[in-house]
Amino acid sequence: MSAGQGAGEGHAGGSDEVLAEVRGRVGHLTLNRPRAINALNHPMVRRIDETLDAWEQDDTVVAVVVDGAGDRGLCAGGDVRMMRDSALDDGTEAAAFWHDEYVLNAHIARFPKPYVALMDGVVMGGGVGVSAHGSVRVVTERSKVGMPEATIGFTPDVGGTFLLSRAPGELGTHLALTAGSVGAGDAIALGLADTYVPSERLTDLTAALLEVTSADQVNTVVERFAEPAPDAPLSAARSWVDACYSAGTAEEIVARLRAHGAPEAKEAAETVLGKSPTSVKVTLEALRRARDLPDLPAVLEQEYRVSCGFLTGSDLAEGIRAQVVDKDRDPQWDPSTLEAVTDVERFFAPVPSGPLDLPR
Protein backbone atom coordinates (compact mmCIF):
# COMPACT_ATOMS: atom_id res chain seq x y z
CA MET A 1 0.00 0.00 0.00
CA SER A 2 1.38 3.38 -0.91
CA ALA A 3 1.18 6.01 1.78
CA GLY A 4 -1.18 8.16 -0.21
CA GLN A 5 -3.74 5.42 -0.79
CA GLY A 6 -6.55 4.44 1.50
CA ALA A 7 -6.12 1.21 3.39
CA GLY A 8 -7.02 -1.89 1.47
CA GLU A 9 -6.19 -5.52 1.74
CA GLY A 10 -3.16 -6.68 -0.20
CA HIS A 11 -2.03 -3.37 -1.71
CA ALA A 12 1.77 -3.56 -1.58
CA GLY A 13 4.01 -0.51 -1.22
CA GLY A 14 5.68 1.08 -4.22
CA SER A 15 9.08 1.44 -2.57
CA ASP A 16 11.17 -1.72 -2.45
CA GLU A 17 13.16 -0.42 0.53
CA VAL A 18 10.08 -0.09 2.75
CA LEU A 19 7.34 -2.65 2.21
CA ALA A 20 3.98 -1.31 3.39
CA GLU A 21 0.86 -3.42 3.30
CA VAL A 22 -2.46 -3.56 5.10
CA ARG A 23 -3.41 -7.09 6.07
CA GLY A 24 -6.99 -7.17 7.26
CA ARG A 25 -7.03 -4.30 9.76
CA VAL A 26 -3.30 -4.14 10.53
CA GLY A 27 -0.63 -2.11 8.76
CA HIS A 28 2.59 -4.07 8.23
CA LEU A 29 5.83 -2.15 7.64
CA THR A 30 8.99 -4.06 6.71
CA LEU A 31 12.36 -2.33 6.37
CA ASN A 32 13.76 -4.00 3.28
CA ARG A 33 17.49 -3.44 2.87
CA PRO A 34 18.68 -6.77 4.30
CA ARG A 35 22.21 -6.52 2.87
CA ALA A 36 22.64 -3.28 4.87
CA ILE A 37 20.83 -4.73 7.91
CA ASN A 38 17.96 -2.43 6.87
CA ALA A 39 19.86 0.80 7.57
CA LEU A 40 17.70 3.87 7.00
CA ASN A 41 18.21 6.30 4.16
CA HIS A 42 16.26 9.51 3.59
CA PRO A 43 13.64 8.09 1.19
CA MET A 44 12.91 5.30 3.68
CA VAL A 45 12.37 7.79 6.50
CA ARG A 46 9.97 9.83 4.37
CA ARG A 47 8.16 6.69 3.23
CA ILE A 48 7.61 5.42 6.78
CA ASP A 49 6.36 8.80 7.98
CA GLU A 50 3.97 9.21 5.04
CA THR A 51 2.64 5.68 5.55
CA LEU A 52 2.05 6.27 9.24
CA ASP A 53 0.21 9.49 8.36
CA ALA A 54 -2.10 7.57 6.05
CA TRP A 55 -2.71 4.76 8.53
CA GLU A 56 -3.26 7.17 11.40
CA GLN A 57 -6.10 8.79 9.48
CA ASP A 58 -7.58 5.50 8.25
CA ASP A 59 -10.15 4.16 10.72
CA THR A 60 -9.97 0.69 9.19
CA VAL A 61 -6.36 0.34 10.37
CA VAL A 62 -6.30 -0.51 14.10
CA ALA A 63 -2.58 -1.25 14.66
CA VAL A 64 0.85 -1.26 13.02
CA VAL A 65 3.55 -3.96 13.05
CA VAL A 66 7.15 -3.06 12.13
CA ASP A 67 9.92 -5.55 11.36
CA GLY A 68 13.05 -5.93 9.25
CA ALA A 69 13.80 -8.12 6.24
CA GLY A 70 16.43 -10.83 6.46
CA ASP A 71 17.75 -12.57 9.54
CA ARG A 72 20.36 -10.09 10.80
CA GLY A 73 18.25 -7.45 12.48
CA LEU A 74 15.54 -4.85 12.45
CA CYS A 75 17.80 -1.92 11.56
CA ALA A 76 21.53 -1.21 11.92
CA GLY A 77 21.17 2.58 11.98
CA GLY A 78 21.27 5.41 9.48
CA ASP A 79 23.05 6.15 6.22
CA VAL A 80 26.48 6.96 7.64
CA ARG A 81 28.24 7.18 4.29
CA MET A 82 25.84 9.94 3.30
CA MET A 83 26.53 11.66 6.63
CA ARG A 84 30.26 11.58 5.98
CA ASP A 85 29.90 12.90 2.44
CA SER A 86 27.63 15.65 3.71
CA ALA A 87 29.97 16.56 6.56
CA LEU A 88 32.81 16.89 4.07
CA ASP A 89 30.56 19.13 1.94
CA ASP A 90 28.25 21.77 3.45
CA GLY A 91 26.25 19.53 5.80
CA THR A 92 22.91 20.31 4.18
CA GLU A 93 22.01 16.74 3.21
CA ALA A 94 22.75 15.27 6.64
CA ALA A 95 20.85 18.05 8.43
CA ALA A 96 17.81 17.47 6.19
CA PHE A 97 17.96 13.72 6.88
CA TRP A 98 18.14 14.24 10.65
CA HIS A 99 15.30 16.75 10.51
CA ASP A 100 12.95 14.27 8.85
CA GLU A 101 14.21 11.33 10.92
CA TYR A 102 13.56 13.12 14.21
CA VAL A 103 10.11 14.21 12.98
CA LEU A 104 9.45 10.50 12.35
CA ASN A 105 10.69 9.53 15.82
CA ALA A 106 8.29 12.01 17.42
CA HIS A 107 5.47 10.76 15.18
CA ILE A 108 6.04 7.17 16.32
CA ALA A 109 5.99 8.21 19.97
CA ARG A 110 2.62 9.97 19.65
CA PHE A 111 1.09 7.48 17.21
CA PRO A 112 -2.44 6.91 18.53
CA LYS A 113 -2.73 3.22 17.62
CA PRO A 114 -0.69 0.26 18.86
CA TYR A 115 2.74 0.36 17.20
CA VAL A 116 4.40 -3.03 17.57
CA ALA A 117 8.16 -3.06 16.92
CA LEU A 118 9.76 -6.49 16.50
CA MET A 119 13.32 -5.73 17.67
CA ASP A 120 14.96 -8.99 16.61
CA GLY A 121 18.70 -9.04 15.90
CA VAL A 122 20.65 -5.81 15.41
CA VAL A 123 18.81 -2.67 16.56
CA MET A 124 21.29 0.21 16.55
CA GLY A 125 21.06 3.98 16.36
CA GLY A 126 18.30 4.83 13.90
CA GLY A 127 16.89 1.35 14.48
CA VAL A 128 16.25 2.34 18.09
CA GLY A 129 14.50 5.45 16.77
CA VAL A 130 11.96 3.46 14.73
CA SER A 131 11.29 0.92 17.49
CA ALA A 132 11.93 2.05 21.06
CA HIS A 133 9.46 4.96 20.86
CA GLY A 134 6.68 2.55 19.92
CA SER A 135 3.97 1.44 22.32
CA VAL A 136 4.72 -2.33 22.10
CA ARG A 137 8.41 -3.26 21.87
CA VAL A 138 9.40 -6.91 21.51
CA VAL A 139 12.96 -8.26 21.88
CA THR A 140 14.36 -11.76 21.37
CA GLU A 141 17.42 -13.71 22.50
CA ARG A 142 19.08 -12.43 19.30
CA SER A 143 18.46 -8.74 20.05
CA LYS A 144 21.47 -6.44 20.20
CA VAL A 145 20.24 -2.97 21.12
CA GLY A 146 22.47 0.07 21.43
CA MET A 147 23.55 3.58 20.49
CA PRO A 148 27.06 3.19 18.98
CA GLU A 149 27.49 6.78 17.81
CA ALA A 150 30.53 7.74 19.91
CA THR A 151 32.52 5.15 17.94
CA ILE A 152 32.03 7.17 14.75
CA GLY A 153 32.59 10.59 16.30
CA PHE A 154 28.89 11.36 16.71
CA THR A 155 26.35 11.34 19.55
CA PRO A 156 23.22 9.34 20.40
CA ASP A 157 20.27 10.86 18.55
CA VAL A 158 16.81 9.74 17.31
CA GLY A 159 15.61 10.29 20.89
CA GLY A 160 18.40 8.11 22.26
CA THR A 161 19.41 10.68 24.85
CA PHE A 162 15.76 10.83 25.97
CA LEU A 163 15.63 7.06 26.50
CA LEU A 164 19.10 6.67 28.02
CA SER A 165 18.75 9.65 30.34
CA ARG A 166 15.66 7.99 31.81
CA ALA A 167 17.21 4.55 32.28
CA PRO A 168 17.76 3.45 35.91
CA GLY A 169 20.69 5.15 37.61
CA GLU A 170 23.63 5.74 35.29
CA LEU A 171 23.13 2.66 33.10
CA GLY A 172 22.18 4.84 30.13
CA THR A 173 25.26 6.99 30.60
CA HIS A 174 27.48 3.90 30.54
CA LEU A 175 25.80 2.61 27.40
CA ALA A 176 26.13 5.96 25.63
CA LEU A 177 29.76 6.72 26.54
CA THR A 178 31.01 3.22 25.76
CA ALA A 179 28.85 3.05 22.60
CA GLY A 180 27.88 -0.43 23.77
CA SER A 181 24.90 -2.66 23.20
CA VAL A 182 22.68 -4.82 25.40
CA GLY A 183 20.65 -7.98 25.01
CA ALA A 184 16.98 -8.55 25.65
CA GLY A 185 17.06 -8.58 29.46
CA ASP A 186 18.95 -5.32 29.77
CA ALA A 187 16.96 -3.69 26.95
CA ILE A 188 13.82 -4.29 29.00
CA ALA A 189 15.47 -3.23 32.26
CA LEU A 190 16.75 0.02 30.70
CA GLY A 191 13.33 0.90 29.26
CA LEU A 192 14.28 0.31 25.61
CA ALA A 193 11.86 -2.61 25.21
CA ASP A 194 8.89 -4.20 26.97
CA THR A 195 8.50 -7.88 26.20
CA TYR A 196 10.66 -10.93 25.50
CA VAL A 197 9.57 -13.41 22.84
CA PRO A 198 11.93 -16.17 21.59
CA SER A 199 12.90 -15.60 17.97
CA GLU A 200 11.52 -19.00 16.96
CA ARG A 201 8.05 -17.72 17.84
CA LEU A 202 8.26 -14.44 15.89
CA THR A 203 6.73 -15.82 12.71
CA ASP A 204 3.70 -17.07 14.61
CA LEU A 205 3.50 -13.86 16.64
CA THR A 206 3.54 -11.76 13.47
CA ALA A 207 0.83 -13.90 11.88
CA ALA A 208 -1.35 -13.58 14.98
CA LEU A 209 -0.85 -9.81 15.16
CA LEU A 210 -1.86 -9.41 11.52
CA GLU A 211 -5.16 -11.08 12.34
CA VAL A 212 -6.29 -8.72 15.12
CA THR A 213 -9.42 -6.71 14.45
CA SER A 214 -9.22 -4.20 17.29
CA ALA A 215 -6.48 -2.31 19.12
CA ASP A 216 -7.26 -3.88 22.47
CA GLN A 217 -6.38 -7.34 21.13
CA VAL A 218 -2.73 -6.44 20.47
CA ASN A 219 -1.36 -6.75 24.02
CA THR A 220 -3.33 -9.95 24.57
CA VAL A 221 -1.72 -11.50 21.49
CA VAL A 222 1.80 -10.41 22.50
CA GLU A 223 1.34 -11.73 26.03
CA ARG A 224 0.36 -15.11 24.61
CA PHE A 225 3.80 -15.48 23.06
CA ALA A 226 5.83 -13.75 25.80
CA GLU A 227 8.25 -15.50 28.12
CA PRO A 228 10.21 -14.28 31.18
CA ALA A 229 13.06 -11.99 30.18
CA PRO A 230 16.63 -13.35 30.23
CA ASP A 231 19.26 -12.14 32.68
CA ALA A 232 20.31 -8.49 32.57
CA PRO A 233 24.07 -8.47 33.24
CA LEU A 234 24.54 -4.72 32.83
CA SER A 235 21.74 -3.98 35.28
CA ALA A 236 23.34 -6.40 37.73
CA ALA A 237 26.49 -4.23 37.59
CA ARG A 238 24.64 -1.09 38.54
CA SER A 239 26.56 -0.55 41.80
CA TRP A 240 29.85 0.25 40.08
CA VAL A 241 28.16 1.87 37.09
CA ASP A 242 26.28 4.34 39.29
CA ALA A 243 29.33 5.01 41.47
CA CYS A 244 31.55 5.85 38.51
CA TYR A 245 29.25 7.54 36.01
CA SER A 246 27.64 9.88 38.53
CA ALA A 247 30.82 11.98 38.47
CA GLY A 248 30.49 15.53 37.25
CA THR A 249 32.86 15.38 34.28
CA ALA A 250 34.00 12.87 31.70
CA GLU A 251 37.54 13.07 33.04
CA GLU A 252 36.36 12.20 36.54
CA ILE A 253 34.21 9.35 35.22
CA VAL A 254 37.28 7.80 33.58
CA ALA A 255 39.32 8.31 36.75
CA ARG A 256 36.66 6.59 38.86
CA LEU A 257 36.39 3.71 36.39
CA ARG A 258 40.14 3.18 36.45
CA ALA A 259 40.26 3.31 40.25
CA HIS A 260 37.33 0.96 40.80
CA GLY A 261 38.02 -2.63 41.75
CA ALA A 262 35.68 -4.20 39.21
CA PRO A 263 37.55 -5.45 36.12
CA GLU A 264 34.55 -4.39 34.00
CA ALA A 265 35.00 -0.82 35.22
CA LYS A 266 38.62 -0.67 34.12
CA GLU A 267 37.64 -2.13 30.77
CA ALA A 268 34.93 0.51 30.42
CA ALA A 269 37.49 3.26 31.08
CA GLU A 270 39.65 2.10 28.20
CA THR A 271 36.58 1.77 25.97
CA VAL A 272 35.50 5.35 26.72
CA LEU A 273 39.03 6.62 26.06
CA GLY A 274 38.95 4.97 22.63
CA LYS A 275 35.91 6.99 21.56
CA SER A 276 35.92 10.50 20.14
CA PRO A 277 36.73 12.78 23.11
CA THR A 278 34.38 15.39 21.67
CA SER A 279 31.61 12.80 21.35
CA VAL A 280 32.12 11.65 24.94
CA LYS A 281 31.98 15.13 26.42
CA VAL A 282 29.09 16.37 24.29
CA THR A 283 27.11 13.17 24.86
CA LEU A 284 27.55 13.40 28.63
CA GLU A 285 26.30 16.99 28.60
CA ALA A 286 23.40 16.09 26.29
CA LEU A 287 22.31 13.28 28.62
CA ARG A 288 22.47 15.51 31.69
CA ARG A 289 20.45 18.23 29.97
CA ALA A 290 17.96 15.69 28.59
CA ARG A 291 17.10 14.60 32.14
CA ASP A 292 15.75 18.07 32.82
CA LEU A 293 13.80 18.42 29.57
CA PRO A 294 10.07 17.69 29.81
CA ASP A 295 9.40 15.33 26.94
CA LEU A 296 10.69 13.61 23.82
CA PRO A 297 9.99 16.53 21.44
CA ALA A 298 12.10 18.84 23.63
CA VAL A 299 14.95 16.32 23.65
CA LEU A 300 14.74 15.81 19.88
CA GLU A 301 14.97 19.58 19.45
CA GLN A 302 18.18 19.50 21.49
CA GLU A 303 19.52 16.51 19.57
CA TYR A 304 18.96 18.30 16.28
CA ARG A 305 21.12 21.20 17.44
CA VAL A 306 23.80 18.84 18.74
CA SER A 307 23.82 16.67 15.61
CA CYS A 308 24.19 19.70 13.36
CA GLY A 309 27.03 20.85 15.61
CA PHE A 310 28.98 17.72 14.71
CA LEU A 311 28.92 18.78 11.07
CA THR A 312 31.24 21.68 11.95
CA GLY A 313 34.09 19.51 13.24
CA SER A 314 36.19 16.71 11.78
CA ASP A 315 35.41 13.76 14.08
CA LEU A 316 32.18 12.61 12.40
CA ALA A 317 33.79 12.27 8.96
CA GLU A 318 36.93 10.76 10.48
CA GLY A 319 35.06 8.25 12.61
CA ILE A 320 32.99 7.00 9.69
CA ARG A 321 36.13 6.79 7.56
CA ALA A 322 37.87 4.63 10.16
CA GLN A 323 34.91 2.34 10.87
CA VAL A 324 33.06 2.09 7.57
CA VAL A 325 35.09 3.42 4.63
CA ASP A 326 38.73 2.42 5.17
CA LYS A 327 37.90 0.10 8.10
CA ASP A 328 41.32 0.60 9.68
CA ARG A 329 39.66 1.16 13.10
CA ASP A 330 42.27 3.85 13.78
CA PRO A 331 40.48 7.21 13.91
CA GLN A 332 42.57 10.32 14.46
CA TRP A 333 40.35 12.38 16.74
CA ASP A 334 40.73 16.16 16.94
CA PRO A 335 41.02 17.11 19.77
CA SER A 336 42.64 13.83 20.77
CA THR A 337 42.09 13.96 24.56
CA LEU A 338 39.18 14.71 26.87
CA GLU A 339 41.13 17.50 28.51
CA ALA A 340 41.60 19.27 25.17
CA VAL A 341 37.84 19.43 24.50
CA THR A 342 36.91 22.81 25.94
CA ASP A 343 34.00 24.12 23.84
CA VAL A 344 30.99 21.90 24.44
CA GLU A 345 28.47 24.73 24.60
CA ARG A 346 28.62 25.44 20.87
CA PHE A 347 26.89 22.11 20.17
CA PHE A 348 23.76 23.34 21.96
CA ALA A 349 23.43 26.62 20.06
CA PRO A 350 20.44 27.17 17.73
CA VAL A 351 21.00 26.07 14.13
CA PRO A 352 20.65 28.58 11.28
CA SER A 353 17.84 26.59 9.67
CA GLY A 354 15.72 26.92 12.80
CA PRO A 355 14.22 24.40 15.26
CA LEU A 356 12.27 21.27 14.41
CA ASP A 357 9.00 22.73 15.76
CA LEU A 358 7.63 19.33 16.73
CA PRO A 359 4.02 19.07 17.89
CA ARG A 360 3.65 18.66 21.64
From TrEMBL:
Its EC number is 3.1.2.4. It catalyses: 3-hydroxy-2-methylpropanoyl-CoA + H2O = 3-hydroxy-2-methylpropanoate + CoA + H(+). InterPro entries: ClpP/crotonase-like_dom_sf, ECH_dom, HIBYL-CoA-H. Residues 26-343 form the Enoyl-CoA hydratase/isomerase domain. Pfam families: ECH_2. Keywords: Hydrolase. It is an enzyme of class 3 (hydrolase). This is 3-hydroxyisobutyryl-CoA hydrolase. It comes from Nocardiopsis coralli.
